[in-house]
Each structure stands twice: as C-alpha cells, then as structure tokens.
Design goal:
This protein starts with a helix and ends in a 6-residue tail after the last helix. Helix 4 (about 65-100) crosses helix 14. The model has no long low-confidence stretch (mean pLDDT about 85). The chain is built from 14 helices and no strands. The chain has helices at about 1-15, 25-35, 40-60, 65-100, 105-125, 130-160, 165-175, 175-185, 190-205, 205-215, 230-240, 245-270, 275-280, 280-305. With about 300 residues, it is mainly α. Helices cover about 80% and strands about 0% of the residues.
Length: about 300
C-alpha cells in the first residue's frame, strides 16, 4: 500500500508539470490525495513547494515586460500599504473578539494581510509559535486559498472586471502568491502581470513586519528576506532588453507556469484530515471573516474607481 501511494504521488506530481493538468485541477488533485492517503513525503513536500513557488515566480518574470512590472509596482504600493494596515487591525480585533488562542490569531492575520504561508513561515519562529499554532494558521489560510483559486475568476467575469481590475483585486484580496498567479493567469495575460507584480510588492512587507515583530518580542530569530523577488525583476529585465534571447525566455516562462501548477499540487497535499481537525472553528471563522471583509472592500473600491491601476 505504501509503495502504491508513493507511485501515485509521483505520478500526479509529474502530471502537474504537463499541459493536461490546469492549476485548479492540480490543487484539487493534491487536496484529494492529502485527505485520502497519509503523505509519504510530508516535510520534503513542504520544502519543495516553497522552493518551487519561488523558482516558478522567477520563471514567470521571463514572460513579463520590465516597464509594466515597475508601473504595477509603483501603482500598487499605496493600495498595498493601506490594505495591509487595515487587514492587520481588523484581524487582531476579530481574533480578540472570537478568543482565538495563542499566536494563531496574529499568524492568521499576517498571512491574510501580506502573503499567506510565506508570511506565516517568516513570523512563526519570531513568535516562537508551536507546531499546532503553525498548523492551524497554515491550514486556515490554505483552505481559503483553495477556495479563492476557484471562485475569483468566475466572480470577476460575472462582474465584468477588466484584466487590470481583476489582477489588482486578486493581488490585494488573495493570500498566497501561488493562488494569485493561478487565478490571474486564468483571467488573462494583463491580469497576470498586474496580479503577480502587485502581489510581490505586497510580499516585501514581510521584512518590516518581521523586524517590528522581532523588536516587540525581543526575538533574535533569523529573518528571511524574499530574494526571489529581485530575481523576478532581473528576469523581466532580460526579457525586455535582450530580445535575441526570446526563445529561451519563452521556454523559461512556460516552465514557470508548469512549476506553479506543480506547486499548487504540493500545497494541496498538505491539507490532510489531521490539518482539518486541528484548525477548529474559531481560527477558521477569524480567517474567513477577515478574508471576506478584505475581499469585498477591495472589490467595492476597485469597481467604484477609488482604486485603479
């Protein structure tokens, strides 16, 4: 049985790199695998998903124009700062109201406000969060990420959002970079450029938040810098100013999209029965309410023209 599970895992992982499995289907396949079987490579899969996501984002940079990337980064900076401040204040208030225990409330809040699992992974050691608190926070955020990947594109289509509007909404309202890129790529190429760039600009806020948290907690934990964002910009630079390498850049961009699909499969396999059981209703309700308020508020402001790219 154990050998069969391992073979199935590697078969689905290989299929995720092929054109036959879309990002949403890869995520569903991962979730079904995680719920149905004990993960044969749990710890290795989490590390691989983190590395593969960063490599895939860099690969996507080879398909983007640097001028558009810089424009999106400048335009989204103010919106990102305001939305992060609002989400943190609201999230901490909801956590206190719902009496979410320990560090889970702060981790869920930062995961929603900045960039999902990456923010939780960076802030958790600073808070000296235990394994249960990390599992609860990651489980709640990943569950909502999975939902967002499926429901955001149909909502955007039903509301006739332009690609730039959708990309901005996805970047501000979806937790994890993987789900932002997955949803935006399904909506259109311009949505992908804006969504990815604004989301990566949002991810940079991990650094000041981690430094502030460490100062408040007087923690000496090592703070991880998101260096892959620099490589993403360098990849866009190569694609913009070295047209003779277009064959290579197109191939690397395609490889980035394939890597993203495989990342979503690996993330899905991390949602197991044990994870679902650990989450509990209070942290999940906090994460759900915070996500809904942020998503609805940003959508309203974008449709009203108060937030525009």
């Amino acid at each position: 049985m154990e050998l069969t599970v391992k073979i199935l895992f590697f078969f689905l992982l290989a299929l995720s790199f092929s054109p036959w499995l879309s990002p949403p289907l890869a995520l569903v396949a991962g979730i079904l695998f995680g719920i149905a079987f004990p993960h044969p490579y749990g710890a290795q899969s989490r590390r691989a998903a983190r590395f593969l996501l960063q490599a895939a984002v860099v690969g996507l940079g080879f398909g983007m124009n640097l001028h558009e990337v810089l424009k999106a980064g400048r335009s989204g900076f103010f919106y990102t700062a305001v939305s992060i401040s609002f989400a943190i204040a609201l999230g901490l208030g909801l956590g206190k109201l719902l009496k979410v225990r320990g560090n889970s409330s702060f981790l869920i809040t930062t995961g929603t406000a900045i960039c999902g699992g990456s923010a939780i992974a960076a802030i958790g050691p600073i808070l000296e969060a235990n394994e249960e608190e990390m599992a609860v926070s990651l489980g709640a955020v990943f569950l909502l990420n999975s939902v967002a990947l499926f429901i955001f594109p149909p909502i955007g289509g039903a509301l006739h959002l332009s690609e730039s509007q959708f990309g901005l909404w996805a970047a501000l309202a979806i937790h994890d970079t993987s789900s932002v890129v997955g949803a935006a790529s399904k909506y259109g190429p311009q949505a992908l450029v804006i969504g990815t760039t604004v989301k990566l600009a949002r991810a940079l806020w991990i650094v000041p938040l981690a430094l502030t948290t460490a100062a408040v907690k007087r923690s000496k934990s090592h703070i991880q810098l998101p260096w892959f964002i620099l490589f993403f910009c360098l990849a866009a630079l190569v694609n913009t100013y070295l047209p003779n390498l277009s064959g290579w850049t197109q191939a690397l961009s395609l490889l980035g999209r394939r890597g993203l699909t495989a990342t979503l499969f690996l993330i899905g396999t991390g949602i197991s029965r044990a994870t679902l059981g650990q989450v509990g209703w209070r942290p999940l309700l906090q994460a759900l309410l915070l996500w809904m308020v942020v998503g609805c508020a940003t959508l309203y402001l974008i449709r009203a023209g108060l937030i525009a790219f």
